[in-house]
Design goal:
With about 170 residues, the protein is of the alpha/beta class. The chain is built from 4 helices and 7 strands. It has helices at about 1-10, 30-40, 55-60, 65-80, and strands at about 15-20, 50, 80, 100-105, 110, 125-130, 135-145.
Length: about 170
């Protein structure tokens, strides 16, 4: 996880959602959460990074689990909404989120973007974890695209108007 954030040039403090692999086991889920807590060590303990898993909606997908998580995150970015994980009213008692920046997304909520010190909106960022049956672990960082603001044009400044036609006539 630390290497993924480093290679992406993403400070973990700017990640506001994690699509967890969510093994759904007493052992696997706490191991995954503890790995996240280690990677986010030093990030404020405020509840500001949602955790979810598409597995609660569609079950285990074996080789397709990672791509399902990516699709879910992309749809959440498109709609700027974190969707609740279904069927997880009872939380694994071995998962301890206290003192961490994480919270379980248990209801649909607007996905708020962070802002920089000048008040500019930062792109939403998420991490997606996927663990293979053979022991392979993968984590990818996704960032939404924000189109640059077009430069302001003053009324008294000349501007270019591009015209084209099929022929000179």
């Amino acid at each position: 996880l630390k290497e993924a954030y480093s290679r992406a040039g993403a400070d973990p403090a700017t990640i506001t959602y994690i699509e967890a692999h969510g093994t759904g086991t007493k052992l696997g889920d706490p191991v995954e959460i503890n790995g996240l807590k280690s990677a986010f060590d030093g990030v404020s303990g405020e509840r500001r990074c949602g955790l979810g898993s598409v597995k609660t909606n569609i079950g285990h997908l074996e080789l397709a689990a990672g791509v399902a998580g990516v699709i879910k995150v992309l749809l959440q970015m498109k709609h700027r909404t974190l969707v609740r994980s279904l069927h997880c009213e009872q939380v694994n008692p071995y998962i301890d989120l206290s003192g961490s920046p994480f919270y379980l997304v248990d209801q649909n909520t607007p996905w708020q973007a962070l802002t920089d010190t000048d008040g500019r909106t930062l792109p939403r960022r998420a991490g997606v974890s996927s663990f293979g049956f053979g022991g392979v672990n993968a984590h990818v960082v996704l960032e939404e695209y924000l189109a640059p603001e077009p430069p302001a044009v003053a009324e008294d400044q000349p501007c270019l108007i591009v015209l084209s036609a099929r022929d000179a006539g």
